[in-house]
Amino acid sequence: xxxxxxxxxxxxxxxxxxxxxxxxxxxxxxxxxxxxxxxxxxxxxxxxxxxxxxxxxxxxxxxxxxxxxxxxxxxxxxxxxxxxxxxxxxxxxxxxxxxxxxxxxxxxxxxxxxxxxxxxxxxxxxxxxxxxxxxxxxxxxxxxxxxxxxxxxxxxxxxxxxxxxxxxxxxxxxxxxxxxxxxxxxxxxxxxxxxxxxxxxxxxxxxxxxxxxxxxxxxxxxxxxxxxxxxxxxxxxxxxxxxxxxxxxxxxxxxxxxxxxxxxxxxxxxxxxxxxxxxxxxxxxxxxxxxxx
Length: 293
Known about the structure:
The protein is α+β, with helices and mostly antiparallel strands. It contains nine helices and ten strands. The protein is 28% helix and 23% strand. The strands form three sheets. It has a six-stranded mixed beta sheet. The protein has a two-stranded antiparallel sheet with strand order 7-8. Strand 4 (62-75) and strand 5 form a beta hairpin. The protein is elongated and about 60 Å long.
């Protein structure tokens, strides 16, 4: 099962239609279930946001009701035609976000004569900017005093943990969208801008100082890297000087060195406000040299 999924290319967020949850007795907080034909799509979205959608084929098209992040994908233990995926950082929206209506421009795939057939699909991909628009509306909906921005002010509500998960998801998605744009969707170390036939980009927005080490979700702590260079950065096989010159360890495979920018420097946005902070580069570089001294 998994060997057939590993070739799937990475993509952005997905929308999940909640219609299957009741049938299988799931709430969606811990797992989602879907038909096997969607397995590759969901597997490619591992670690990515999933937005829950209650479909309707009436004029308003349904509502977005919750969000989380996709975890591991595995076959259903009983139903051979279905697949499960674990979910983490799940949070229900306190105010449902209607798919259609004045000023609503969320899923472009729902525009057109065949929107009803698209609306009832169990899984469909969703670009970052459209996902962020949904999360922003879920956060700032002013029609209810229980909008997320109001709720975020209180740490004493029973749903405070869910609210923090929602805030973290929204913050990270906004950072990634900004980072991809700032780096023109190209790897900072190689200049490669690989994408698949559906327009999905291979490059990752990655933290210079890891989140585990209290690295913030800020553009100044970010680089856009292809997956190989992302892995190398996280494992301290590669780092940057203050002037953005690339430094590599002796353990870095020479075949990958040949992919690095010819001038020996990372591609960095011209706008200083979008450039990596020297503070975070120095912290990463200190770890790099401590590993390889």
